[in-house]
Structures are given as C-alpha cells and as structure tokens.
Amino acid sequence: MTTSPAADELARVVRDHAGQLAASLVSLLGDFSAAEDLVQDAVETALRRWPVEGIPDRPDGWLFTVARRRGLDVLRRQENYRSKLAQLQWPIQPAPDDRLRLIFTCCHPALAREAQIALTLRVVCGLTTAQIAAAFLVPETTLAQRITRAKRKIAQAGIPYRIPRADELPERLGEVLTVIYLLFNEGYLSSSSDRVHSRDLVDDAEWLTSLLAGLQPNEPEITGLLVLIRLHRSRAAARFTPEGQLVLLQDQDRGTWDHEAIAAATALLTRTARRHRSPGPYQLQAAIAACHCEAASWKDTDWQQILVLYDMLLHLQPSSITRLHRSVAVRYVKGADVALAELDGLDGELSSYPLYHATRAEMLRAVGDYKTATEADRRALELTANPAQAEVLRERLATH
Amino acid sequence: MKYVLMFVDTEEYAKEVEAMSPAELEQVYDRVNQWFIDHAAKIRSTTSKLQGAATATTVRLDGPEPVTTDGPFMEGKEVISGFTEIEVADLDEALRMVKTWPACPIVEIRPVGP
After folding, report:
1. Closest-CA residue in chain A for B88?
2. What is the SS3 assignment for A157-202?
3. Which of A74, A121, A258, A389 is the Cys-Cys partner for A234 at CB 3.0 to 4.6 Å?
4. Do B7 and B103 contact (CB within 8 A), yes or no?
5. What pLDDT, on a 0 to 100 scale, did the predictor assign at position A386?
C-alpha cells in the first residue's frame, strides 16, 4: 500500500474528528442528512487546504468552524437550522461519544448492504465520496447516488438515530460487524503492492473495530473481529514479493511477520475467551488465524486444532465458504482424498468461486491427478478478477 | 410516524392454510386478533383483509385508452392480502411490532407520505 505519509496523516486526522463532528451536528440539527452534508463539505475543504496550509493545531475546531460557517450559508432559508447553528459555539459541550449512535444508524438493517458500507465510511470515518468510489472501483456518480438514496431513506422511512434497545442489540451489532468485516475483506483481498491505493480500507476497518470496542467494551465478538484484523495485518509484509507478487501463506517468510503484534493480539483473544463462554464466529475465525500465526512453519501448523475450530464455526454458521476453508485442514488431518470428497459436495454452490477451483486443484495434485488439477486451475484463472491471484494461478499452470 | 403495513401471502402459505383443520384455522385467527389487541394503541383506523388475488381487476391508464384486465397488477407468487396503518415513533418500533406478526410470512413496511 503506497500512500504518502503526509496523506496518511491527513486521513488519520480527518478520521479522528469527522465522525465526532457528524455525531454532534446530527444531535443538534436532528437531521442526519443535513449534518452529514456539512461534515462532508468541511472534510473536502480540509483535504484541499491542509496539504497547503498545514494541519491546524486543533483540527476538530477547524472542521467545526468550517461546518458551522457553511451551515449558516447553505441553510439560510431554513430558519430552524440557522438559529440552532447560530447558537453553536466552539468548543461543543463535552458530551459522551455519540459515534455509536452514528454507527448504528449507518448500519441499520433497513439499508442495503452497499449503502451501509458507503455511509459508514463517509459519515463515521470521514472519507469523501471520491475516495470511497476509488476504493471500491465504482464510478463516483454511482456512489454519490447510493449515498443520496440511503440518506433519503433514513429520513423518509424514519430510521432512528439511536443505540438499539438491549433486546435488539445482538442482531444490530451483528449487522455492524458484518459491515466492518466486508470492508476489511474488500481492503485485504484487493490490496496488492502494485496498485496505488488512495485509501487503505484495512486500516479503516481496524480503526472502526477498535472505536467500537472502546464504545462497547463488553462485547466479545467485537474483540474477536479486532484480533482477526490485527492478525491478518501482522502478516502484511510477507504477503507480497518486492516485485508485487502475492505469496501464499504456506510460502510466506514467517520471519517478516510482526511477532510482537501477533503476541499482543493473541493475548487479547485469550483474555476475552477467559471472560466469556462459548465463542462467536469472529472469535473462532480469530483463533484459526492465531493458530496459523503461531506456527513456526506451514509444516508445524496445528491442523487438528484448526479443524476443531472450523467444526465449531460451521456449527454456528454453516456456509459453503467455511466448508471450503475447512477442507484444507481436513486435507492435513485426514488426507487429500477425504478433503476432495468433501469438496465435491460444494460444487453446486461454489462453481463460480475461483478459490474453490484453486483449492481443488491443490488437492487433486496431492492425490496425483495432474490433468484434472490443471483444468481446475484454468477454471479458477477464468473466474478470478483479482490480478494478484491470477498471477499465482498463471505461475502454477506454467510449472505443473 | 405513520406507516402502512402490507401483509403478503405466498403460494406456500396459501397451501398451508388450505390444509389446516377448522381448529387450527381458528387458532391462527385468534393469534391475529390477539396481535391487533396487543398493538391496538398503535393501529390507526384502516385495517382490511383483502379478497384473494383472483378477485383483483387492474386498469392500466398509461396507454391511449384505459385497459382493464383480470388479476393483480403484478403476476407473482407473492400477493398482498391485507393492510393496516400504524402510528409509531420510528422504523425500529414498526420493526418490533412486525416481528411478532403471527400469520402470513411477509410484511412490507411503507412510510405514509407527508
């Protein structure tokens, strides 16, 4: 991920304050959409001016002043906003962090998944529409429409700005974690060292999860997701060659992993597991990642333990993708023939999923069926849209 | 806020209801009545159970002449079987209410225009 340190710093400062400002303006104006427009406008002004003028001493005060001035300007005709904004003085009264409400509104289940993701990035993390569009490779106009529609729905359908009631919290928190997980996946899978990113979505995902963990400290699944993200990030340096080629886990130089970060993340997972009974899906996935991170080599991986964890995960969340990942553990515990037989059962659901064919190809090679393996690798290559994955597959086809 | 709840039947549900004994049917009606009693404070005037989709007549006015056809406007496996208007604080309250609905398998929640 090659963004300049200055741009990273700028993004961090904006992210630290944009959500806070959005939260206080929504509370004040009682209008999510208007507040969000003001913040977006202030963020865009900051991104234009800070690189030239330098980041101000009090970035929050600066953003606030711009939003307020702009608000008075834009909302001149709407008397009630104007009087509310006119009363508003910096610093805003110290208030409890309101960003939790913001997150729950952005991730409301009545909004489409892609709208939840775009809104969360824009409202909570302070990304601009252009940055989000670039990260997801969609035209900016498409993304702008998505956000406009979502904001209109929030207003017209009466989606509330509030933390869900205790009995609704598990479902709604699940929704938020799904949004962050998808964001993380998008950033992780699309990343490669040869593609210049305007924004590191993985970093946004970690930041959001850690914000959420701070606001909801007793939710073990938030910690699970946080550990999962941190463990993946701890291996980032080994995922690509200096030439930008993807390196699979089994071939990675484990010496370049961030072992300090791994130790800290696994310790956090262990502490959480001790305090809470039966782990949820994110904790289980984090535990699987921890098994990989703690193995001295691919050969030393505790596949038995990984298989147990996958079985627990399948019990909670039966999905063919989980079965696919589990099949790798099955291969090392029970043999490639057993794993292949299990994979055959997934063909219907995963026939257009490149990783299914690539995994199957490896199993087929392990049992000596090179001809069918090559066919499976070819199929994976046809299906993948990810350049780094395609490169690995092409190399495989050339050497086998 | 005011919302209209549209109750939607599916083919499967229609078959399920057809196969019910009179006693089972009565139980369904009781549960539905109880639901309306439980939420009476939030339910506004109009609540209607509609006759089956086979009784619908559709008039299309977007051509040169109005065209009258037999059946609902959209042929599908899911048909609106009734509606009611509610008044609640926000969408979350409407969602809570709808999640306890004891009969047909789909409910659409639509805010009423200003």
Report:
1. A158
2. CCCCCCCCCCCCHHHHHHHHHHHHHHHHHHHHHHCCCCCCCCCCHH
3. A258
4. yes
5. 80
Domain range summary for chain A, segments of one domain joined by +: 224-299, 302-400
SS3 of A30-48: the string is CCHHHHHHHHHHHHHHHHH
What would the CATH number be for the domain defined by A302-400? 1.25.40.10
Give Cβ neighbours of residue A94 (< 8 Å, ≥ 6 apart). none
Candidates B111, B110, B109, B104; CA nearest to B11 is B104
0.90 surpassed by complex ipTM: no
Binding-site residues on chain B for chain A (CB distance < 8 A): 1, 3, 89-92, 94-96, 109, 111
Residue B111: CB atoms within 10 Å: 17
Q: Assess whether pLDDT exceeds 80 at residue A82.
A: no
Longest Cα–Cα distance in chain A? 77
Q: Is A155 on the interface with B (CB under 8 A)?
A: no
A30 at interface of B, judged by CB pairs closer than 8 A? no
The answer to whether residues A264 and A323 touch, using CB atoms and an 8 Å cutoff, is no
DSSP H/E element including B11 = helix B11-18
Alpha-carbon distances, residue A303 vs A7, A289, A329, A358, A388 (angstroms): 41, 12, 5, 20, 26
Rounded percentage of chain B residues whose pLDDT exceeds 70: 100
At the top level of CATH, the class of B2-111 is alpha beta
Question: Could you report the per-residue pLDDT of A346-396, keeping only the tens digit for each?
Answer: 988 999 999 999 999 999 999 999 999 999 999 999 998 888 888 889 999
Instruction: Please name the member of B3, B91, B109 whose beta carbon is closest to the beta carbon of A160.
Output: B91
Ramachandran bin of A30, using left for φ above 0, alpha for ψ from -120 to 50, beta for the remaining angles: left
Asked if A168 lies within 8 A of B92 by C-beta distance, the reply is yes
pLDDT at A199: 55
Task: Single out the residue of A36, A18, A16, A43 nearest to residue A161, CA to CA.
Answer: A36
Tokens of A266: 């696994």
Q: What angle do CA A144, A147, A149 make, to 5 degrees?
A: 110
Length of chain A (residues): 400
* Annotated domain spans of chain B: 2-111
Listed in sequence order, the residues at least 6 apart from B52 whose beta carbon sits closer than 8 Å to its beta carbon are: B79, B81
Alpha helices of chain A — where are they, by DSSP H?
5-29, 32-53, 59-74, 79-87, 99-106, 113-119, 129-136, 140-156, 169-190, 201-215, 220-234, 259-275, 281-294, 303-316, 320-334, 336-344, 347-350, 354-366, 370-383, 387-399
CB contact under 8 A, A157 and B91: yes
Neighbours of B40 (CB within 10 A): 8
